[in-house]
Write a structure and sequence with these properties.
Elements: E1 2-7, E2 12-20, E3 24-34, H1 36-40, H2 47-68, E4 78-84, H3 88-105, E5 108-113, H4 114-120, E6 130-132, E7 139-144, E8 149-156, E9 159-165, H5 171-181, H6 188-196, H7 221-234, H8 239-268, E10 272-276, H9 283-292, E11 298-300, H10 312-324
Bound molecules: 5'-O-[(R)-(carboxyoxy)(hydroxy)phosphoryl]adenosine and zinc ion.
Residues 10, 145-147, 172-173, 175-176, 187-190, 193, 277-279, 281-282, 308-309 line the site of 5'-O-[(R)-(carboxyoxy)(hydroxy)phosphoryl]adenosine.
Length: 344
């Protein structure tokens, strides 16, 4: 089955064409137009600006995706598009484009929950490659992105249970806000990671919220606020200080993620775990996971190109929704963007 994926939930306009059946998965093209540089001047994503750029980026991007995959809209069996969660205006651009394309071709349209895109992103081979894929159930999926921090138990196709989630800020959001406090560039995650490489992880004592709480929930607002208060008290902005604070923050945030995941693995006895979403690009997180999870646990991590928002993961989640979970939408004209869509 050949699927066109479209993603416009935040500040990335993305299009992808994948080929997938019960065993085989190939990414023919995956293109992303990031608006990071535009929003960096504002220090964060401006929703109206994001939506306007999706409008101008969408058609040229689709053309690039088709040209890279040497195919055309006529060969597409289904169109998968992010329905939510995300920014309302941004989502509408992708959804309405997908509706028109599906209507013009008379093909199936699959609305996709952006979070399920991340949940399956670890399966995707590099662009231009093909893989034989296999999924083991049950498995745990830790989604760590700019908008979400959720631990999901995936029992089978279409059987998702949220075991825990953040009670306040998402972990990526905490990276972005701490970067702002330390006057690092936007987006904050990569900037903190870069600065932290030269810093001491134990330079500053910071809280590790909910570390000892028995639930699978997370909390990152207190950690961010602790950085803010210490930063004000210390009153420094030199690069040695920024490196030490970035390293101390990264250590605290990642300690919480890794310890809580490890505990859930031990408690549930589940031996297959994926860690997905923008923050899963973090090298220190990857290193800590490898040394902290029990050796008999199989860890699935997405290729770095698929950690952030992309449309290949949306196309794949669309296939899973349509074929594996049997969720077909009869009248797609009535679909609307769902900015607050959750895992359930
Ligand atoms: O999944 P994503 O691209 O978008 C959402 O669905 O939210 O995640 C974006 C988040 C941002 O908060 C960004 O700062 C963070 O992922 N991020 C990182 C790294 N790369 C991106 N956080 C920590 N370390 C990184 N290397
Ligand atoms: Zn995302």
């Amino acid at each position: 089955m050949r699927i066109l994926g479209i993603e416009t939930s935040c500040d990335e306009t993305a299009a992808s064409i994948i080929e997938v059946d019960e065993r085989r998965l190939a990414v023919c093209a995956s293109v992303v137009n990031s608006q990071v540089d535009i929003h960096a001047t504002y220090g964060g994503v401006v929703p109206e600006v994001a939506a306007r750029h999706h409008v101008t980026n969408m058609m040229p991007l689709l053309e690039i995706a088709f040209s890279k995959s040497q195919s055309s809209l006529a060969g597409i069996d289904a169109i998968a598009v992010t329905q939510g969660p995300g920014l309302a205006g941004a989502l509408m651009v992708g959804l309405e484009t997908a509706k028109v394309l599906a209507w013009s071709q008379g093909c199936t349209l699959v609305p996709v929950n952006h979070l399920f895109g991340h949940v399956w992103s670890w399966l995707l081979p590099a662009v231009g490659n093909e893989t034989q894929y296999e999924v083991t159930f049950p498995h745990l999926s830790l989604i760590v992105s700019g908008g979400h921090t959720e631990l999901v138990l995936v029992r089978g196709w279409g059987q998702y249970e949220v075991l825990g989630r953040t009670l306040d800020d998402a972990v990526g959001e905490a990276f972005d806000k701490v970067a702002k406090i330390l006057q690092l560039s936007y987006p904050g995650g990569p900037a903190i990671a870069r600065a932290a490489r030269l810093g001491k992880r134990d330079a500053y004592e910071l809280p590790q919220p909910l570390l000892h709480d028995k639930s699978d929930n997370f909390s990152f607002a207190g950690l961010k606020t602790a950085v803010l208060y210490q930063h004000r008290n210390i009153g420094r902005s030199d690069s040695a200080y920024v490196a030490d604070m970035a390293a101390s923050f990264e250590a605290a945030a990642i300690q919480v993620l890794v310890t809580k995941l490890e505990r859930a693995v031990v408690r549930t006895g589940i031996r297959h775990v994926s860690v997905v979403g923008g923050v899963s690009a973090n090298q220190y997180l990857r290193e800590r996971l490898l040394v902290s999870l029990p050796t008999n646990v199989k860890l699935w991590l997405p290729e770095l190109t698929y950690t952030g928002d992309n449309a290949a993961m949306i196309a794949l989640a669309g296939y899973i929704s349509l074929v594996r979970e049997g969720r077909e939408v009869k009248n797609f004209f009535s679909l609307s963007a769902q900015p607050n869509l959750e895992v359930f």
